[in-house]
Amino acid sequence: MSQAEQVRTLVSVHDVMPETLPQVERILALLESEGVSAVTLLVVPGRAWSREAIEVLKGFESRGYELAGHGWLHRVERYGGLRHRVHAHLISRNVAEHLALDANGIVALMHRTHGWFRQHGLKPPTLYVPPAWAMGRVARNALAILPYLQYEIFSGILSGQTGRLHPIPMLGYEADSAWRAPVIRLWNQLNRRRSRSSGWLRIGIHPHDLDLRLADDLRSDLKRFRLHADYSAIDDQPGSQRYRLLKSSKSPREADSTISNTRSNPRCPP
Q1: pTM
Q2: What's the CATH code, domain 4-244?
Q3: Cβ atoms of residues 70 and 15 within 8 Å
Q4: What share of the chain in percent tops pLDDT 90?
């Protein structure tokens, strides 16, 4: 068995909005053709969701896909200071809405997102992923009282209950400019190597990735990494994985960690 075949992979599709549903369906068709059934869809609740579009989300659930919260609007009207402007220029464009808010605003946004699912007859999400993986200025103890079990940030998966971080390498493909393609390709090369020692990997897919410069890289990675898992497979019980508590009580930060390489059963197709 190759090293890639031993890596458990978390696959997510980002920016699920009414206007991106055709692209999301296309991505899901590709994933299905590659035998990827454990897929998490990151839903942006604050967009103009019609009754028909909500029914599409319910259809995703009935097909076995997990829905997660992903911000509220997935855009910002103003920047939250110089650091946010730099982050937007290099990474997030105008989507990292947490960075424009204070702690109270971030908590309120995440509560509103969670409530939206229940209001529309959808399963309340257990995972929350801030846009651009940027959580912003919110304390860990505030995350612990929110109704989510897990948070995905840039460096890995954060437990809402224990505040522990599981650092997991991430691959991305949103190369929508000439300079981003070589940078992201190098980033992905490094993280493929990291996954060999960690035993885990994240593949994050954005709606237009199949039409961008790294589309072939995405297809190759789906063929390379064949063992898939749900986010719930990241067990936070003592002894299941070895890790240290986050170093900062103010915001999620990466800590040294060793994650076990035990296999999990990927979800069977619905």
Answers
A1: 0.84
A2: 3.20.20.370
A3: yes
A4: 69
Q: Tens digits of per-residue pLDDT, 62-113?
A: 999 999 999 999 867 765 565 644 544 455 566 788 988 999 999 999 999 9
Cβ atoms of 157 and 165 closer than 8 Å = yes
Report residue 24 as tokens: 């999301």
Helix (H) or strand (E) segment spanning residue 128? strand 127-128
Please name the residue that has the structure tokens 């839903």: 43
User: What are the tokens at 98?
Assistant: 């947490």
Going by C-alpha positions, the residue among 55, 46, 49, 65 that lies closest to residue 125 is: 65
What are the tens digits of pLDDT across the range 13-70? Answer: 999 999 999 999 999 999 999 999 999 999 999 999 999 999 999 999 999 999 999 9
How far is 167 from 157, CA to CA, in rounded Å?
A: 6
DSSP symbol at 90 = I
**Long-range contact set of residues 24-31: C-beta below 8 Å, sequence gap at least 24:** 24/207, 26/210, 27/205, 27/207, 27/209, 27/210, 28/60, 28/65, 30/210, 30/219, 30/222, 31/222
Q: What is the pLDDT of residue 266?
A: 32
Q: Is 137 helix (H, G, I), strand (E, B) or coil?
A: coil
Neighbours of 255 (CB within 10 A): 17
Distance CA 143, CA 158 (A): 10
Residue 176 burial (C-beta neighbours within 10 Å; 0-12, 13-18, 19+): middle
What's the helix, strand, coil split of the chain in %, to 5? 40, 20, 45
Where is average pLDDT lowest: 118-127, 137-146, 148-157?
A: 137-146
Residue with tokens 């915001």: 251
With contact defined as beta carbons under 8 Å apart, do 42 and 130 qualify?
A: no
